Amino acid sequence: MRYVCLALLLLSGTASAQTSAPLFNVLNYGARADGAANDAAAIQKAIDACARSGGGVVQLPAGNYVSGTLVLKTNVTLHLAPGATLWGSKKIDDYDPPHLIYAREAENIALEGGGTINGNGEAYWDSSFRPHERRPSPLIEFVKCRNVRIQDLSIRNAPGWTIHPLDCDGVKIRGISIVNHLRGPNTDGIDPDSSRNVAISDSYIEAGDDCIVLKTTGRGGGPARPCENVTVTNCTLVSDDAALKLGTESHGDFRHCLFSNCVISASRVGIAFYAKDGGTFEGISFSNITIDTRITHRESVVWPIFIDLEKRNEDWRQSRIRDVSFSDIVIHSKGRVLVGGMPDHPLENITFRNILMRVTGFEQVEKVAKPRGSSRVRPAGREIDYASVPAAFIFANVRGLNLRGIRVIWDTAAPPQERHAIYAARVEDLRIAEFSGRQAAPEGKLAVIGLDATKNVFITGSRAEAGAGVFVGLRGVGKDDVVLAGNDLKRARREVKQGATHVHLP
What we know:
Elements: H1 2-18, E1 23-25, E2 34-38, H2 40-52, E3 56-60, E4 63-67, E5 70-71, E6 76-80, E7 84-88, E8 101-104, E9 107-112, E10 116-118, E11 140-143, E12 146-151, E13 154-156, E14 163-166, E15 169-174, E16 177-179, E17 196-201, E18 204-207, E19 212-216, E20 227-233, E21 236-239, E22 242-250, E23 254-267, E24 269-275, E25 280-293, E26 303-309, E27 320-333, E28 337-340, E29 347-359, E30 391-410, E31 420-433, E32 436-437, E33 449-452, E34 455-460, E35 463-464, E36 470-475, E37 482-485, E38 494-498
């Protein structure tokens, strides 16, 4: 009996602790929750009263609340109860600043509760999905805030970016769902921008642009701070653009970021890097991820993984990408993996480990150009654009490339086309271990592994599958630059041959 009493006492103490924060019911401040009246003034009164009292919980009981801008303040939690929906006003004049929920230089703030936020995004573009000139975007923006929590909410129909933490420290986003129109312009899901110590987990995001995208825009004033110490885990992502992305805005650095245990489904691009504005991308890891790409209304070419380094303008600082790893990833795609640096600024120390790529079709690759991420960039020459190369994996301008446990399976009923499994151009220090596969066309013209102007190559523990023609094709590569050791190549018609690679180098 003593233990039962003790347990009851502990439970009662927990419940007491959970309800000890002062509560501010917006209905007591004049909110009508009828879906017609604008309740912004009443909700803001409750927030202000809560902040003046030292903090607490502002409650929105079940109902429909129409609102313009709400400014969240230090130590205030905005709690949307199950059955409560906060509707963004369709009138742009109701937003000042142009966000539904906004905070600046606040601490210990939260959005929670099991309710819904609906941005009424369709009111801000026309029937052809062209955005109106003025719209409330981002829907939720926190600037220079500390200890931010967004949890257990449904967010729908953002008119632009959905959640934008800018120059924040300590952001936790967990257990939310974001569903935006897949053709809604710029309807990103979550955009951590020059923010630190960010954790995003256990969420579902469906976006008309990027689902989760790290940026360093420099909008916070002064030099762009880094985006660092970011974890993304246990998320399901559907994107009309890129599911997981870093850039294009890259005025500051990106470092110490980990993405794991995610499902990327029906997205045009799975994982993307766009390094254009001088920031350094380093210490980035992707693991335990499945990627399934699809063709969308935007373009007919898909990219399960895309990494691109280039300058936006000639006189801008040069970005760097180094120490990036991909491990335990399964890809189902008609597209190709493209990883490219610049001849005078190669990518550094890139690792792909335990990657299964099941190629489910053949895209047309002739005259295909790489995605640029922005129209405001200098023209790309052939030396930095390898998007037309016929290969499942394309690597160009890399120093230190480690490929271990890569398997390519050509799984399509369509007639086979000429494709390398792996193509590497201008790569220095290439290690391939435990690779398994063949070229797409059995005993085709292109080698399983095509090497152009590549140095210091070591291939070991790899296996040519049935139908392999030439296993390694060389162009501009001396035989002394390639070492094969401990491989099972008995199914290949020929181990090494000069030629048998796609002609691309200018």
